[in-house]
Amino acid sequence: MQTIRYGGDYNPEQWPEETWREDVRLMREAGVNLVSLGVFNWGIIEPAPGEYDWSGLDEVIGLLHEGGIGVDLGTPTSSPPAWLRKAHPEIRLVDREGRTLAGGSRHGVCPSAPAYRDACASIVEQLAARYGGHPAVELWHVHNEYGWANVECYCEASTAAFQAWLAAKYGDVDRLNAAWGTAFWGLVYRSFDQIEAPAVAPPGVNPALQLDWKRFSNDEHIANYRLQREIIARRSKAPATTNFMIPNCEGMDYWRWAGEVDVVANNHYLIAEREDHQIELSMSADLTRAVAGGPWMIMEHSTSAVNWQPRNIAKTPGEMRRNSLAHVARGADGLMFFQWRASRAGAEKFHSAMVPHGGTDTQVWRDVAALGRDLERLSGVVGTDVAADVAMLWDWESWWALELEWRPSVDLKYRERVEAYYAALWRQHVTVDFAHPEADLSGYRLVVAPSSYVLTDAASKNLRGYVENGGHLVVSYFSGIVDEHDTVHPGAHPGALRETLGLWIEEFHPLREGEELGLDSASGAGIGGGAAGRIWSEHVRLDGARAVAHFAAGPDRGRPALTRHDLGRGTAWYAATALDGPTGLNDLLATAMEAAGVERPQGIPANVEVVRRGGHRFLINHTAQDVQVPGGGVDALDGTAYDGPVPVPAGGVVILADA
Ligand code: GLA
User: Is 158 in a helix, a strand, or coil?
Assistant: First the structure.
């Protein structure tokens, strides 16, 4: 990719042919250079089994090609045609309650069903044969949002596939019994075919069974992707991808997906009602960059409101531009929208688009066209990476395991802590990378582990080695408790981090709903005083670490609440409660960053995002006031040179190129 790819989902089958030429003309006007085509058209291109109608697709691809617009060609397998469901009722999705899902929508199929798999292979074979060599096809958009509504299927075929998956993983059922701890309640299996999918059951279903089920379900979708990708690769040299939903799809483990795609593509929609939704967007972008290991693309975001949230708040003036450029700042080399032209019919007609129902005499259209012109001037960032000194651990397996039933508190939520720590760093203008707990962390000055409930032995060694070799680590409560089978590490909690943190926990003391405990700063340490903890307290026993703050109240009054352990050449910090806000979390992170030598941009106004990427500095003003940002540079979009502070208008974005 030499220029930033710009465009959106294009669904010409919803429009009469007269619109197609006009679409191409408008796309050119807006600087669109790539569109996703055919993502949901299976029922149109294959009206009956083995009968194909390529007329519309041939023509549209030809028109786009003539217009110099590339095609990201969809495989339509997320919306199987009605005839397939009718001919093969066994492909219908069965949910956890055992209900068979009806048709009339997309996605409602079982990824493990042989008839569905065969039909996918057949339509993809046809598409690849017909368009694999077409010069307009620059990218393959396999399926759409794997796991959107069918992460798990509980039909008989799925159960059989799960049993086969387990047999391949463990070889011998006794190995599975040992890994799953089935001696508990005598839930022992004597053969793989005795194992049931974890559908609705009495409470207390074996957590290890549930974790393997989630891994299996993820793998079934990967298998479908691979099937399609391999067929395409035989016929086409164009790269292939599928659109992820980071971080809003809990069921897909995108660390496992990362190696399967040629370019990581993500869909991100603002959680519109949240006041600070720009922070969640940044987090999504940073996590997507981590999964990609470099540049990536936004396959879908919205020009304004979506249609599927409880209240679909429209974007405020300038917000779409801020959102789009924040993705670019954080590593996106492509910016695509759902969708090109707002639909008149169907379930998504109230979703914003690049061409709204009101046409081109609208602010949305003017903003879309202006953004296209801006992107043409930002080719210099394409292919470049984002620099970060701080990493945050992220693991879908911890998310899954932490939120299974019967934890010490229902308030233990994976994203609650990750987002709290991420937001505290964001508000201090610190760019964060995400990392898997077993990844090489040596390039980071500081690593933050807010919700690392599951840590394998390898991750435990990794974190210890990181600290001993000079790294700085901040860990939040209820981390390092269990291994990948949800089995408690031997000895006192937190087994995987005891030595690294220099402490052990005698007993957990979760708090009541809404309860807050004050903290006292230990003399001279300067953090924690005046802060309050929520959700959690525990009886921390020091074994090498020292307390920097104590609980001032509650069951652990007078006992350590925040600790510091100098180990080897590094330091490990621990928070035994949920900190928030300026006196708690910000202080802890500021102190840890100071000790770790993390450079923080100074003098940046609150709620202004500053990100460095490829010789550019992105200044994104999320406030309603004009601000000045220290430092100078040359405006990459209009060439203005600044010697001193750079003015960034209210709600605006300035991108400075290094001289
Ligand atoms: C998802 C889908 C799109 C569309 C949008 C609407 O991202 O991939 O097809 O439904 O949501 O926001």
Answer: helix
| Whether 519 contacts 531, CB under 8 Å | yes
- Supply the DSSP symbol for 258: G
Q: CATH code at 589?
A: 3.40.50.880
Residues with CB under 6 A from ligand 1: 144-145, 267, 269, 300, 306, 338, 348, 351
pLDDT at 437 over 90: yes
Ligand 1 nearest atom to the CA of residue 269, by list position = 12
Ligand 1 center to 482 CA (angstroms)? 36
The reply to whether 152 belongs to the active site is: no
* Count of domains for the chain: 3
Decide if 231 is inside a domain: yes
Contacts of residue 222, Cβ cutoff 8 Å, sequence gap at least 6: 146, 256, 257, 260
Do 172 and 289 sit in the same domain of this protein?
A: yes
Same domain, 627 and 572: no
554 and 642 together in one domain:
no
The closest-lying atom of ligand 1 relative to the alpha carbon of residue 39 is 9
Residue in 266, 308, 315, 348 to alter for ligand 1 test, most ligand atoms within 8 A of Cβ: 348
Domain boundary among 331, 354, 381: 381
Domain boundary among 545, 576, 596: 596
Residue of minimum CA distance from atom 11 in ligand 1: 338
Shared domain for 553 and 498, answered yes or no, is yes
Q: Does the pLDDT at position 249 exceed 90?
A: yes
Note whether residue 557 is domain-resident. Answer: yes
- What is the rounded CA–CA span in Å between residue 624 and residue 650? 5
Tell the residue nearest (CA) to atom 12 of ligand 1.
306
Which of 145, 220, 438, 538 is catalytic? The answer is: 145
List the residue whose alpha carbon is closest to atom 3 of ligand 1.
338
Concatenated DSSP letters of 53-103? --HHHHHHHHHHHHTT-EEEEEP-TTS--HHHHHH-GGGB-B-TTSPBPPS
- CA of 220 from ligand 1 middle (Å) equals 22
Residue 544 domain boundaries: 390-596
Query: What's residue 526's pLDDT?
Result: 63
Task: Check whether residue 335 and residue 449 sit in a common domain.
Answer: no
How would residue 527 be classed by pLDDT, with cut points 50, 70 and 90?
confident
300 catalytically annotated: yes
- Residue 524, pLDDT score: 54
The torsion angles phi and psi of 85, rounded to 5 degrees, stand at -65, -35
